[in-house]
Amino acid sequence: MIRSSKTKAMTPRGRQGNILSAAPSPRGSAMKSRAPASALKKAVVLQLDGQSVRGYLNPGGLKGAAEAIELLTTDGEHDPVPMTEVKAVYFVREFTDAFELERKTFLSRPKLDGLWVRLRFRDGDEIEGIVPNNLVELLDAGVQITPPDLHGNTLRMFVPRSALAEMKVLGVVGVARRTERDGQEPDTQSKLFGE
C-alpha cells in the first residue's frame, strides 16, 4: 500500500493528482509548444504603426514560417503579435524607454565577423548591422542583425521580411585571407626591361 501513496502527489495549487495518469489536460498541447522560461529573452516588439510591446520571447521561435510572434508580456499574459504587423524585434538588456537605437550606422568599418548590411524598411527608415555569413539563415522568415552600437541597450534585432523594402550587402568583414596552393609563393610582378 505504500506504493499507492507514492502515486499521489500535490499539484501546484494543493490538489491531489495521480502522477501516472495519462489523460491530457486541455492546455497540455499548448504548454508543450511553449519554450521554458530559461529560453525567454527580454524583447521589445515594435509594430509598423509605431506601438511597442515589451515582454519575453524565445529567439528560436522566430525561425521558420511563423505567422505570429509568441510574446509573454511583463504582466505574464500570452500576447501573439502577427508577423505582418511587426517592424522589428529588439532584444534588450533592460526594459527602458530608450530601446530604439541612438546610432543606426557604423562610424567606420565594423570589426565583427559577418556581412555588413543596410536594411531599408517599407516606411523609408534605414539601419545598418552585421548578419552572420551564412546564407541558409538569410533564407529564413527574417533577418537577425547585430546593431552598430554594441554598448547600447539593444543587443541584437530581428526584422521580418514583410517589414523590409530592401537589403544591401555593404561588405564582408572578417574573412580570412586565401593561402596559396601547395605553399608556393605568388608570382612577383614581371620586370619591364629585363632588369
Q: Give a short account of the largest sheet.
A: 7 strands, antiparallel
DSSP strand content: 35-45%
Count of extended strands = 12
Provide the CATH top-level class of the domain at 114-173. Mainly Beta
Mind telling me the C-alpha Rg? Answer: 25 Å
Shape summary:
elongated
| CATH level 3 topology of the domain at 114-173 | SH3 type barrels
Describe what this molecule looks like in 3D.
The chain is mainly β and 195 residues long. The protein has a domain at 114-173: SH3 type barrels (Roll). The protein is built from 3 helices and 12 strands. A hairpin with a 4-residue loop joins strand 5 (68-73) and strand 6 (78-82). The termini are far apart. The relative contact order is 0.13. The model is unreliable at 1-32 (pLDDT under 50).
Features:
mainly beta; SH3 type barrels; seven-stranded antiparallel beta sheet; three-stranded antiparallel beta sheet; 12 strands; elongated; disordered N terminus
